[in-house]
Design goal:
With 211 residues, this protein is an alpha/beta fold. The chain has 5 helices and 12 strands. The chain has an 8-stranded mixed β-sheet with strand order 5-4-1-6-9-10-11-12, with helices on both faces. Strands 2-3 form a two-stranded antiparallel ribbon. Strands 7-8 form a two-stranded antiparallel sheet.
Length: 211
């Protein structure tokens, strides 16, 4: 079985040296890669360039930058994997326009100078990757992630169920302050499975994908 794991953050450029990004280390994805490889699965890891987690990757490593770059590299794997674990923390927005206080033309600048004064950034939604995975991997088991800070555990499960329905995925891993400690594993029609930490989650996912 060939398994693909995405992990770490994507980033979207403001200029050539400044970025929008998420605070994700990529550590959970690397742990999952190691457990999958230890169970005998072939592993492909698409890891965000800005991920800070250290250690070698168990399997083939492919770095990615922006959401569009990740989607292109996923497309290159089209139909070649049996399971996808989409744990990457992707940007929800990218820069559409930049307005400078002093009227400088700064969008597309190599490095926006501080003499431009205050900047106003207009953001627009980035391309969504998860909804496109089913089209790329029609026969694969696909697991999405839902990290939520607001609401209750029941709210998080409702959002996970909506993700399953809208994206055609098989399961969703939930975590964050709204969920509470550890993780939850959500599939349609069944109670969420609580998992205490990343190690227990990785072991559970390896067992689930092999069923």
């Amino acid at each position: 079985m060939r398994c693909l794991v995405t992990c770490g953050p994507s980033w979207e450029p403001i200029d050539r040296v400044r970025r929008l990004t998420n605070s994700s280390t990529g550590g959970l994805g690397l742990k999952l890669c190691a457990v999958l490889a230890g169970a005998g699965y072939e592993v492909v890891c698409l890891k965000g360039e800005a991920a800070t987690a250290q250690g070698s990757v168990a399997g083939e490593l492919i770095p990615f930058s922006t959401n569009e770059d990740l989607l292109a590299k996923l497309t290159a794997q089209r139909g070649r994997v049996d399971a996808v674990f989409h744990a990457a923390a992707l940007c929800d927005y990218r820069v559409k326009t930049i307005h400078a206080e002093h009227g400088d033309a700064v969008l597309g600048a190599q490095k926006i100078p501080t003499r431009s004064g205050n900047l106003t950034l207009e953001l627009e939604p980035t391309i969504k990757v998860l909804p496109q995975l089913r089209g790329l991997f029609p026969k694969a088991k696909i697991v999405g992630w839902k990290y939520e800070l607001d609401g209750t555990g029941d709210d998080v499960i409702d959002r996970a169920m909506r993700q399953l329905a809208e994206c055609g995925t098989d399961a969703c891993v939930v975590n964050g302050a709204a969920w509470g400690d550890g993780f939850g594993f959500v599939v349609a029609g069944k109670a969420a499975v609580p998992l205490k930490d990343a190690g227990e989650l990785a072991g559970f996912l390896v067992g689930w994908v092999g069923r």
